Amino acid sequence: MAKAQFHKNQRVYVKPVGTWALVERVLPQWTKGLDEPLRIYYDVGLGREFSADELQAEQPAAETAVGDTESWRVVRARNKWQPAEDCARHPVPGTYPIVITGQAEWGGWRVPGAEYDLDPARVERQARLIANAPQFEIFAKSLVDWARKSGEEMPSSLADLAHQAQDLLAHVNEIES
Fold it and tell me: Are residues 118 and 139 in the same domain?
Protein backbone atom coordinates (compact mmCIF):
# COMPACT_ATOMS: atom_id res chain seq x y z
CA MET A 1 0.00 0.00 0.00
CA ALA A 2 1.24 3.47 -0.78
CA LYS A 3 0.60 6.93 0.53
CA ALA A 4 1.29 10.10 -1.46
CA GLN A 5 4.50 11.79 -0.32
CA PHE A 6 4.09 14.88 -2.52
CA HIS A 7 1.09 16.97 -3.48
CA LYS A 8 0.00 18.87 -6.56
CA ASN A 9 1.94 22.13 -7.21
CA GLN A 10 4.67 21.15 -4.74
CA ARG A 11 8.20 22.04 -5.85
CA VAL A 12 10.42 18.93 -5.97
CA TYR A 13 13.94 18.10 -7.10
CA VAL A 14 13.90 15.42 -9.82
CA LYS A 15 17.05 13.36 -9.11
CA PRO A 16 17.40 11.50 -12.47
CA VAL A 17 17.10 14.75 -14.43
CA GLY A 18 18.90 17.02 -11.96
CA THR A 19 16.38 19.86 -12.04
CA TRP A 20 13.55 21.37 -10.02
CA ALA A 21 9.95 20.92 -11.14
CA LEU A 22 6.37 21.27 -9.89
CA VAL A 23 4.19 18.23 -9.36
CA GLU A 24 1.48 18.63 -12.00
CA ARG A 25 -0.51 15.48 -11.19
CA VAL A 26 -0.50 12.74 -8.56
CA LEU A 27 -1.14 9.41 -10.31
CA PRO A 28 -2.19 6.55 -8.00
CA GLN A 29 -2.26 2.98 -9.36
CA TRP A 30 -5.34 1.26 -7.98
CA THR A 31 -5.97 -2.46 -7.72
CA LYS A 32 -9.42 -3.99 -7.42
CA GLY A 33 -10.33 -4.96 -3.87
CA LEU A 34 -7.82 -2.69 -2.09
CA ASP A 35 -8.68 0.46 -0.17
CA GLU A 36 -5.39 2.20 -0.94
CA PRO A 37 -3.37 2.51 -4.16
CA LEU A 38 -0.60 0.01 -4.84
CA ARG A 39 1.87 2.62 -6.12
CA ILE A 40 1.86 6.35 -6.65
CA TYR A 41 3.60 8.12 -9.51
CA TYR A 42 4.04 11.84 -10.06
CA ASP A 43 3.77 13.77 -13.32
CA VAL A 44 6.16 16.74 -13.17
CA GLY A 45 5.93 17.72 -16.83
CA LEU A 46 9.25 16.19 -17.91
CA GLY A 47 7.94 13.55 -20.31
CA ARG A 48 7.51 10.58 -17.98
CA GLU A 49 6.12 9.70 -14.58
CA PHE A 50 8.44 9.54 -11.56
CA SER A 51 8.19 7.49 -8.39
CA ALA A 52 8.60 9.05 -4.93
CA ASP A 53 12.17 7.76 -4.51
CA GLU A 54 13.21 9.69 -7.65
CA LEU A 55 11.94 12.98 -6.19
CA GLN A 56 13.10 15.06 -3.26
CA ALA A 57 11.05 17.69 -1.42
CA GLU A 58 12.34 21.23 -1.12
CA GLN A 59 13.94 21.79 2.28
CA PRO A 60 13.16 25.00 4.16
CA ALA A 61 16.12 27.35 4.56
CA ALA A 62 17.92 26.77 7.86
CA GLU A 63 18.08 29.66 10.29
CA THR A 64 21.41 30.79 11.66
CA ALA A 65 22.25 30.84 15.35
CA VAL A 66 22.52 34.64 15.40
CA GLY A 67 19.00 35.24 14.14
CA ASP A 68 16.79 35.44 11.12
CA THR A 69 18.77 36.07 7.93
CA GLU A 70 18.06 36.28 4.27
CA SER A 71 18.86 33.27 2.11
CA TRP A 72 20.62 34.52 -1.01
CA ARG A 73 21.87 32.01 -3.55
CA VAL A 74 23.67 31.77 -6.86
CA VAL A 75 21.80 30.07 -9.70
CA ARG A 76 22.87 29.55 -13.30
CA ALA A 77 21.03 30.99 -16.29
CA ARG A 78 21.45 29.93 -19.91
CA ASN A 79 23.76 32.21 -21.87
CA LYS A 80 21.49 33.45 -24.67
CA TRP A 81 24.05 35.62 -26.45
CA GLN A 82 26.72 32.93 -27.10
CA PRO A 83 26.68 29.18 -27.74
CA ALA A 84 28.54 27.04 -25.18
CA GLU A 85 31.34 26.18 -27.64
CA ASP A 86 32.18 29.90 -28.09
CA CYS A 87 32.69 30.44 -24.37
CA ALA A 88 34.73 27.37 -23.40
CA ARG A 89 37.02 29.53 -21.21
CA HIS A 90 34.09 30.43 -18.92
CA PRO A 91 33.92 28.56 -15.58
CA VAL A 92 30.59 26.95 -16.58
CA PRO A 93 30.31 27.24 -20.39
CA GLY A 94 26.90 28.21 -21.71
CA THR A 95 25.70 29.76 -18.43
CA TYR A 96 26.22 32.82 -16.26
CA PRO A 97 25.54 33.45 -12.55
CA ILE A 98 22.47 35.17 -11.15
CA VAL A 99 22.23 36.00 -7.45
CA ILE A 100 18.67 35.47 -6.21
CA THR A 101 18.07 37.86 -3.31
CA GLY A 102 14.39 37.20 -2.64
CA GLN A 103 11.90 34.38 -2.28
CA ALA A 104 10.91 34.51 -5.96
CA GLU A 105 13.25 32.94 -8.51
CA TRP A 106 13.34 36.07 -10.68
CA GLY A 107 14.58 38.78 -8.30
CA GLY A 108 18.19 39.64 -7.73
CA TRP A 109 21.49 40.66 -9.28
CA ARG A 110 22.53 40.09 -12.88
CA VAL A 111 25.41 41.24 -15.01
CA PRO A 112 25.27 42.28 -18.68
CA GLY A 113 26.53 39.61 -21.08
CA ALA A 114 29.32 41.76 -22.50
CA GLU A 115 30.68 42.47 -19.03
CA TYR A 116 30.56 38.78 -18.09
CA ASP A 117 32.45 37.88 -21.26
CA LEU A 118 35.26 40.36 -20.44
CA ASP A 119 36.20 38.69 -17.15
CA PRO A 120 34.05 35.67 -16.21
CA ALA A 121 36.19 34.72 -13.19
CA ARG A 122 35.73 38.20 -11.68
CA VAL A 123 31.95 38.10 -12.17
CA GLU A 124 31.74 34.57 -10.71
CA ARG A 125 33.62 35.80 -7.61
CA GLN A 126 31.32 38.84 -7.34
CA ALA A 127 28.28 36.56 -7.48
CA ARG A 128 29.61 34.36 -4.66
CA LEU A 129 30.53 37.45 -2.62
CA ILE A 130 27.07 38.99 -3.04
CA ALA A 131 25.34 35.69 -2.23
CA ASN A 132 27.33 35.41 1.01
CA ALA A 133 26.86 39.05 2.06
CA PRO A 134 24.15 38.23 4.65
CA GLN A 135 26.57 35.83 6.41
CA PHE A 136 29.30 38.48 6.35
CA GLU A 137 26.88 40.93 7.95
CA ILE A 138 26.08 38.44 10.72
CA PHE A 139 29.80 37.87 11.26
CA ALA A 140 30.50 41.61 11.47
CA LYS A 141 27.63 42.14 13.95
CA SER A 142 28.90 39.26 16.09
CA LEU A 143 32.42 40.72 16.08
CA VAL A 144 31.15 44.16 17.13
CA ASP A 145 28.96 42.66 19.89
CA TRP A 146 31.84 40.55 21.18
CA ALA A 147 34.15 43.59 21.19
CA ARG A 148 31.61 45.61 23.19
CA LYS A 149 31.32 42.84 25.79
CA SER A 150 35.09 42.30 26.02
CA GLY A 151 35.93 45.91 26.78
CA GLU A 152 39.62 46.53 27.55
CA GLU A 153 40.57 42.84 27.58
CA MET A 154 40.94 42.45 23.81
CA PRO A 155 44.14 43.05 21.78
CA SER A 156 44.34 46.39 19.98
CA SER A 157 44.54 44.74 16.52
CA LEU A 158 41.27 42.92 17.20
CA ALA A 159 39.71 46.14 18.50
CA ASP A 160 40.71 47.83 15.22
CA LEU A 161 38.99 45.06 13.26
CA ALA A 162 35.85 45.52 15.36
CA HIS A 163 35.90 49.27 14.64
CA GLN A 164 36.25 48.59 10.91
CA ALA A 165 33.33 46.14 11.09
CA GLN A 166 31.24 48.73 12.92
CA ASP A 167 32.07 51.37 10.27
CA LEU A 168 31.14 48.98 7.46
CA LEU A 169 27.82 48.12 9.13
CA ALA A 170 27.06 51.83 9.60
CA HIS A 171 27.82 52.45 5.91
CA VAL A 172 25.56 49.56 4.84
CA ASN A 173 22.70 50.72 7.06
CA GLU A 174 22.89 54.45 6.32
CA ILE A 175 20.04 55.98 4.37
CA GLU A 176 20.90 58.21 1.42
CA SER A 177 18.94 61.47 1.32
Answer: no
Find the domain containing 38 and state its range.
11-57
Rg (CA), the chain: 24
Order the strands of the 73-78 sheet from edge to edge: 73-78, 95-100, 108-109
Q: How many C-beta neighbours within 10 Å does residue 123 have?
A: 19
* Sequence-distant (≥ 6) Cβ neighbours of residue 11 within 8 angstroms: 20, 21, 22, 58
**What end-to-end distance do the CA atoms of the chain give, in Å?**
64
Residues 115 and 162 in one domain: no
As a whole number of angstroms, the distance between CA 109 and CA 107 comes to: 7
Q: Looking at the domain assignment, is residue 103 inside a domain? A: yes
Number of domains making up the chain: 3
| pLDDT tens digits, one per residue of 27-47 | 999 988 888 888 999 999 999
Note the pLDDT of residue 60. 61
Secondary structure percentages of the chain, helix, strand, coil, to 5: 35, 20, 40
Bridge partners (DSSP) of residue 50 are 42
Distance CA 137, CA 133 (A): 6
Residues in the chain: 177
Least confident among 31-40, 54-63, 149-158: 54-63
Question: Distance between CA 159 and CA 167 in Å, rounded?
Answer: 12
Is pTM, for the whole model, over 0.70? no
